[in-house]
Design brief:
mainly alpha; 0% strand
Length: 56
Amino acid sequence: MSYDALRHFADSWGLVFMGATYLVLVGWHFLPRGRRHSRDAATMIFKNDHIEADHG
């Protein structure tokens, strides 16, 4: 495979692949299961707040 053929492939199908991957990864968070995981990850830092407040 020559450089020009590889470059043509990357310019056309590489862009399509990266765009599709981006849409899948962003859309994943809008699924019901993804929302729960996102909410859990966003509030994870507050999980042990009540324990530290009792001891502090």
